[in-house]
Structure formats: C-alpha cells, structure tokens
Specification:
Layout: H1 3-25, H2 30-57, H3 62-68, H4 84-93, H5 103-112, H6 117-120, H7 122-159, H8 166-173, H9 176-205, H10 214-230, H11 232-262, H12 276-282, H13 287-300, H14 307-310, H15 318-347, H16 353-356, H17 367-374, H18 380-412, H19 430-440, H20 451-460, H21 465-486, H22 501-524, H23 534-541, H24 543-558, H25 581-596, H26 600-608
C-alpha cells in the first residue's frame, strides 16, 4: 500500500471512529449534534479531497507532484456555532499532519533525541561549580522529576493524540490565558534554540581550527537542517533516528572506556583511579550553594525530553507505540545521564583548569572530552567532539520540529494567525517551518566577537520554558484525573496510565517549583560573583516577565480573566477518538489480566519497556 493510501486510510478511519464515538455517546443535546455534524463534514471534505487528488495524480510529472506537494490542504469547514474550545479540539484531533512515525523512530527519539550540549558540555560547568557529588545528586533529582513528568505526559498523549499535545493541554485543563502564555513562550523558546544550537555547532568546529570563519560553518549546518525539513516528518524521523543512534552508541562506548580508564587500563598506566577525585579535591565544591548552582543546570539539560508528546499526532498508532517509547525515557535518564556523569566525576577533578574557562557552548571544556584526554588516548577526543557537534545539530533539527508543530497548535486554538495552520499535502507545517528557519538566521550573530554573550542572552528568553512546561504538564494531568474522578470514572478506561499515578505528577509539579526557586536564588547571587548580579538575574529570569505579560495580553484581548477553569467545565471526551468507552475498559482489563498471568520476567519487562 502506498504512503498516500496509508495516510488516506488512517485519516478516514480517525474521522469515522470519532464520529461513531460521538454519535454513540451523544443524546439529543444540540451541542453534541453540532459537534457530530462538524465531524461528518470533515469526513466528507477529506473524501472529496482524495477523489480530486486521484484524478489529477495520473496526469502529473514527478516535478509537478513535487511542486503541488507544497500546496495547502484546506481545513474542514466547522459549524460557526461551535465554541472556541470545541473548534480547537476538533482541528487538533484531525489536523492534516501525516502519521508517518514508526515505532523505531519513537524508540530512538525517546532514548537519545534531546541529548545535546546540556549533557556533553553544560555538565562541565556543573562539575566546576559543585563537584562530582553535587552533579550526581542534581541529575538524580532532575531525572526523577523528568521521569514523573514524562509518565504524566504519556498518559495524556495516548488519551489525546492531538497536534500540539501539551501546548494544548494547558489551555484545556488549566486555563486559556495560561495556555496562551505557555504556548507562545514555548514556541518562541524553540525558535531561538535553533540559532543557539547552530552557533554552538560552529563553535565545536573551533576545537580543530580556531581560525575557521563561524559564518561559513553556520551556513553549512543551516542548509543541512533546511534540507532535512523539506522531507517533512519522515525526514525529521530518519535523521533523528541516525543521529540519536550515533549518540547512543557514543555514550555506551564512553561508559565502557571510562570503566577501563578508571580501573587503570589506559595507555598512560596511571593505575587504579577509583574514587580518588572524590577524596581530593573532594566530592562537593562550594557546599550547599554549589549544589544549588548545579541543580537548575541539571534540570535544563533534560530540555526537549517532552518532545515525545509532540510526536503523538504524527505517530501511526499512538496507543500501541507511545507507551513503549515513554518507558524508554527511564533508560535514557539512568544510562546516559546518571551512569555517564558518575564516571565523568571519577575521571575529571573539578579543579581541572580546562573547566575553568568552560561556557555553555565551548566543546573543548566538555568533561567527556577532558576525561578521554586525561586517559592519554589520542584521536578519541576529536571523535567525541564530533559526537558533540552531531548532538547539537540534532537538537537544532528538533527545534524546527517543535516550533513548527507548536505554531500549528497556536493557530488551531485561535491564539495565532490562521496562516500558522498552513499544512501542505505532504503533512509539512510549511508556515511554521518557514518562520522557524527565519529565526535560524540569527545564527549569523556567531560572527560577532561577543558570541558567548549573544548565546547567553538568547538563552535568557527561553532557558526556563522547559521547566515551566513540565510543571504545566503535571498540573494538567492532575486536573484531568480529578475530572475523571468527579464524573465517576477512573483510569481503567485509559489505554496507558502513568505508573506513579497522581503522586508522580504531584512530585513533578513540586520539583519544577523547587527548580524555579533555586534558580531565582542562584541567578540573583551567582556563585562566581560577590554580591547580587543584575545581569545574571535578568539573563535567567527574563522568561517570567514575558510569561506574565502574555497572560495579561490574553485576558485583555479575550476579556477572560480566569486563572483556573472550573473542574466541572473541563471537557475530557472531545478529541479522544475512542469508539466506545466500555469497549476500551474491557480491552484494557484483558491486556492487564494477560500480563498478570505471564512469568515475572515478562511482567518486569513490560513495566520498564
């Protein structure tokens, strides 16, 4: 079956299933009937579009088909009597994004997708400021927060596999004003991440040659990302699969090498190292203040992990594929962050002079590179630097994906101009991708002598967006569960339930608040300066005033001052795409009963994988 026929079958079946679900659950309520009619119109328009496409396809040359693939697929005409919320739910559920992500794509994106300079380079600053024990404790705490957050996101994304995912959940479960502010800030953050990562990639090249013109390299990396995005979600998926696989293999290789070096197996013959650097110069640096300076860095290094939720609207079978991908995040946290950083702490003392000049984009100060150099292995530091460069490009590629999909969600919710909803016949959110790439042109600031300062100020407007987003995901999950309980329903109707339930979301939300409080103190009184620092504070907290300003803009624009939607007003059914709740409950119960009867090792496997 061709990909076009597959897309048609998937899209038609989604609309049929949703229409059947609404028709079987709706009574004589006029509002329910209007929603059903909108779904029916959506199906009719979709079928008519494919009939016209069939007639024209046989007459077109490959070049004509390529050109026509960029034409817009019109959104369905919805009944004007629908509320804004109902309209956004229907558009998000039946967006024109193509479901072309397979299980292998999501597995690799979940395991290695967002591993970038935060781990490979930012951990060097953390090691310098807090010592190896602070690094280990901070990443353990942040990892536990991330695990709980992704579990909550997984439950929501499998239940509501809509375009925008958590970008829409805040509007749906918290309040439209907060959703508006969070969505715009999150989108802006990823728009700015692209030029930042391109700048970072150009700086990694200077590890080999300081005289290289930064503008030349950012141009090369920019064109690479542009070409990838011409191929739509499959281009993103395949490129991320390859780059994530390289990162995963590199970290596994580093872990094996680090164990050998720590046991004295390196070419320098220094003998067994063990916990030598934990005793001298010590496990902690700058005491509690050092730990507090490391904790926010560890949290920010997980930025992008939530992107697994954005893939739900473009996954072929989110109910089957997403739960497994969500569980893989645990292994990323344990294997690639905790174990690798523990070994880095064994091999690199926090007094190493190369860490003293480290910045968030200076790959020569990466503790991973330094650990290999300390082992006396020639050639491998350059290989590790190349891995860092690939990782940075990977995050830049993810930035275009995240920003463009978030823009589609903004438009669907009525938070942005309708042009942002432009999705072409290949499922590319063309307007969003174009705007993201325009922001990417800021990468040419890399030619400035003050490129590190530029990097820091770009980061200032987006640095805390991920932490705030994670808190919103946990709060959305809590309110979703409360509404279920309020209506006499429970998690037995959910295809995937968060393993820690509401307690994990409570922990995740509290930890996100703790990160913000700690970051406030560290930003006001940075560890490397005496007294308060206005520059450091505003570089870190510029995001919060922007968030509050956007909330105020929405309240004035829409004349809606609600900070929280009342639980009884929250719609938890539109957009679920289920045939029958009773059927779903029976299916979930049968699956759980089957797993319960399996051997213990299979139950353990299904729990963690």
């Amino acid at each position: 079956m061709s990909s076009n026929n597959q897309d048609r079958q998937i899209h038609n079946s989604e609309i049929e299933l949703s229409s059947f679900y609404i028709s079987s659950s709706a009574g004589d309520d006029k509002q329910d009937q209007e929603v059903l009619r909108s779904y029916t119109e959506c199906y009719s328009n979709n079928a008519e579009h494919f009939r016209k496409e069939d007639k024209l396809r046989v007459k077109k040359t490959p070049w004509q088909r390529f050109k026509d693939s960029f034409k817009k697929v019109e959104a369905p005409d919805l009944d004007p009597s629908l509320t804004d919320a109902e309209r956004s739910y229907i558009l998000a559920t039946h967006s024109n994004l193509k479901r072309r992500l397979y299980g292998r794509h999501l597995q690799m994106i979940a395991i290695g997708g967002s591993i970038g300079s935060g781990l490979f380079v930012g951990s060097g600053t953390a090691l310098k400021n807090g010592g190896p024990a602070s690094v280990l404790l901070s990443w353990l705490l942040s990892g536990s927060m991330m695990y709980c957050t992704v579990q909550a996101l997984g439950e929501l994304a499998v239940t509501y596999p809509v375009s925008g995912a958590f970008v829409q959940y805040s509007s749906r479960f918290i309040s439209p004003a907060w959703g508006f502010a969070m969505a715009w800030n999150y989108t802006l953050a990823w728009c700015l991440y692209l030029p930042m990562e391109l700048v970072a990639a150009s700086i990694t090249v200077k590890y080999w040659n300081e005289d290289v013109n930064s503008a030349a390299w950012v141009s090369i990396f920019y064109v690479v990302i542009l070409i990838i995005n011409i191929f739509g979600v499959r281009g993103f998926a395949e490129s991320e699969f390859v780059m994530s696989l390289i990162k995963v293999l590199a970290i596994i290789g580093f872990i094996i090498l680090a164990i050998v070096l720590n046991c004295g197996g390196g070419p320098k013959g220094d003998g067994y190292i063990g916990g030598k650097y934990w005793r001298d110069p010590g496990a902690f640096h700058h005491g509690f203040r050092g730990f507090c300076s490391v904790f926010p860095l560890s949290a920010i290094s997980f930025s992008g992990t939530e992107l697994i939720g954005l893939t739900a609207a473009e996954t072929q079978n989110p109910r089957k594929i997403l739960p497994s991908a969500i569980k893989q995040v645990f292994w990323r946290i344990v294997l690639f962050y905790i174990i690798s950083l523990l070994l880095v702490g064994f091999l690199v003392p926090y007094t190493d002079h190369r860490l003293l000049s480290s910045s968030s984009v200076d790959a020569s100060a990466s503790p991973f590179v330094i650990a290999i150099e300390n082992g006396g292995i020639k050639g491998l530091p350059s290989v590790m630097n190349a891995i860092i460069m690939i990782s940075v490009i990977s995050v830049g590629n993810s930035a275009v994906f995240a920003a463009s999909r978030s823009m589609v969600s903004l438009s669907q919710q009525g938070f942005g101009p309708e042009i942002l909803m432009y999705v072409d016949r290949e499922g590319r959110p063309l307007a969003g991708v174009t705007i993201s790439l325009i922001f990417g042109l800021l990468c040419y600031l890399a030619v400035l002598p003050q490129q590190n300062q530029v990097f820091n100020w770009l980061l200032a407007s987006s640095g805390l967006s991920s932490v705030v987003t994670w808190g919103c995901i946990c709060i959305s999950h809590l309110r979703f569960r409360y509404v279920l309980k309020l209506r006499g329903r429970g998690p037995d109707e959910l295809p995937f339930s968060a393993q820690l339930g509401i307690y994990g979301s409570i922990y995740g939300a509290v930890m996100a608040c703790v990160v913000l409080v700690v970051e406030f103190w560290v930003a006001l009184f940075p560890i490397n300066k005496k007294g308060a620092s206005a520059e450091s504070f505003f570089q870190t907290w510029l995001y919060i005033p922007m968030m509050l300003a956007l909330c105020a803009i929405y309240m004035i624009w829409k004349r809606d001052c609600r900070l929280l939607i009342k639980l009884r007003e929250i719609d938890i059914d539109t957009g679920r795409g289920l045939i029958d709740l009773r059927m779903m409950r029976d299916e979930v119960a049968e699956e759980r009963e089957y797993i319960a009867q399996c051997p213990w090792y299979y139950r353990v496997y299904k729990f963690w994988c």
